Amino acid sequence: MEDKLMNTLKIMVLTTLLILPSFGAKAQCQLENTAFKSGEYLSFNMYFNWKFIWVKVGSASMSVVQTRYQGKPAYRGSLLTRGNSRADKLFVLRDTLLSYTTLDLAPLYYRKAALEGSRYYIDEVFYSYPNGDSFVKQHQVSSKGVHEWKQHTLSDCVYDMMNMFLRARSFNPSNWKKGYEYPFTMIDGNKTMSAKIKYNGKTVVKADNGLKYRCLQLSYLEKEDGKFKQIVDFFITDDANHVPIRLDMYLNFGSAKAFLVGMKGQRSAMTSLVN
């Protein structure tokens, strides 16, 4: 149950996984940031459908600041999730995700420290770009304290969930057509995975801050046992910020939702706001 709930966390980050071009070496992993600025902060309420009743089970927050990584300017993105006392009776959820990227959004470092139920583990990914390739080191510390390391040299870019959250917000959806799909590769501390995003059109969504926003509706799918499985529908603002407003999660043990409750420090005007 705890493992499946992590899909809800992916959503917070994956709510802005937009249409991506095919990338190769570092020069192609770079992307001009047009969506956020240092100091942005987003907060969410999380709900679970318990016996046909929607119950608030926790909260999540995202932030991004400009800092330095190995002496060079970088963005640091963070995601914190916390279950409340009611949720703790079903499962314990205490996760912290961290990502560093260059100012032009090439991934540099990723870390996830997760306490889910009685299981605590750490994922890390270290990126470098020798000779125009993508070189990644993967590190996972299991709940038993066992360290596992892997390393790969890849001709294509790979992205952790936090880096993808930051970079994908800068894509322009003006030419999207309903039904469009884009495949890509995600990475964590011990594996890579095939995934894709499907664009499902536009709609209006009310957030937990009481406001309504014009949104793009997308679905995130992961490949499992040779087939793509729908994990979540997500709704992001149809403006330059691409802020996630609502998330509908399809879990093996039920369904869950997340709604934006607060935001500050947006780079551009929220032109998607509906009067």
Keywords:
275 residues, mainly beta, 15-stranded antiparallel β-sheet, 4 helices, 15 strands, globular
Number of helices: 4
How many strands, what sense, and barrel or not for the largest sheet?
15 strands, antiparallel
Runs in which pLDDT lies below 50 for 5 or more consecutive residues are 11-25
Number of domains: 1
- The share of residues in extended strands comes to over 45%
Q: What's this, in brief?
A:
Helices cover 11% and strands 55% of the residues.
Could you please describe the fold and organization of this structure?
The chain is mainly β. It has a 15-stranded antiparallel sheet that branches. The protein has helices at 2-14, 26-29, 85-88, 161-168, and strands at residues 40-50, 53-69, 72-83, 93-101, 107-116, 119-128, 134-141, 147-154, 181-187, 192-206, 212-224, 227-237, 244-251, 254-264, 273-274. It is 11% helix and 55% strand. The protein is globular. The longest helix is centred in the N-terminal third of the chain and has 13 residues, at 2-14. It has one domain. Helix 1 runs parallel beside helix 4.
